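ok so for the tutorial part 2 we go from a plain amino acid sequence to predicted structure tokens. step 1 is just haveing the sequence, like this:
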Amino acid sequence: MLFHKRPALIVVGALLATSACGGNGAVPSGVGANNALPQVAVGDESVSPATVDTTSILKKLKKDVLIGSTVDPGNGDTGPRSLFIAPTTYGHLTKGQLVTCNFADSSGTAGKGTTVEVLDAKPGSKPKTFVQYAKNQGCDGAAVNSGNDVFAAGMSAGDVEKFNQDAKPEKTYTTPMEAPLVDADADCSLPYAPESMFVGDAQTGSVVKFASGLYGLKSPVAVITGFAVSGSGWTALGPGGIQYNAKLITHNKCNDTLYVIDGVDDTLVAVKTASNLLTTGEIQVLPGGKTFNCKEKKFTCASLLYSGLPLKEPVALALLPNGNLVVANGRAGNTLVEISAAGKVLATKRLNSDKKAEVYGLLAVGTKDTNTTLFYTDTADNSVHELEP
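step 2 — the prediction. this is what the tokens look like for a chain of 389 residues:
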């Protein structure tokens, strides 16, 4: 077990993961304090150029397969947002099942959905209600931790609800969250390493962190502040698409990089050693979204991975097994953009000719370039699709 010393704090190192392979897609089967100088960088500093995989996965994904509807069979909720995958078989979830939130009700009213759906990751799947919870209005993120607890973010409710494996409500997380936009579990699967939840907020422009497992921050803390926000409902933009790279670098050390998109500034940001984030405003995003003040730069900081075109109001993000990232645009049609860990655009892919944003959830699965596929949600027909080679 690794430890990192900080002023007045001892932190268990190596934390978190959004997936067994990098993103939230396990395989289915400043120096000083407030006077710190801005950190300006392009590309992920935690990645060595020699280790960056420049193979485009998006170019290989030619086939679009319909997995199934996400319309809740009970109350008819619609509008799938976010995608996660069950890491194990326990309770009401089976390893490899897809988990998504319905953001709208049966009439299509944004911010009124209250259901979390489960689908098998194969064509012809039928949705099953994991939970319908009236207090969790505007369900727009459903992250699953290593114990199959489901954390459902409710934008309208202004909180994150924790449900156990049997879909029973266990805890409500609120302040400092006001309008959770997305959430992601982070678990490196190392002994005694804290397992955390990261939540982007569309009202405050912050990224909030708290424990989703036995160890870590018990109460929510806005560890990153200052992301730009705008809009509401379907047009809400801010820190979203959160992904965490949990790939093991050595037997006891993770990549430990957190990725965040901001749809207002059209940026993709990398946060190194995210496991070290502990205090309010530890990283401050400066106006424009491209520079950062880092209070504990020795332990953790942020860098600009990419900004500008072809990104256009990005709303979703996936981390591929090879370390590349795929962004879903909210404008200029439903276009996917693949970016390497070094900040280079590798490919773009237009899913359809619609001008309205429809892809609010992305999930990559696989173990290597040759078996990677990409799931996405489509609010036009309330469904999940899979892009395959």
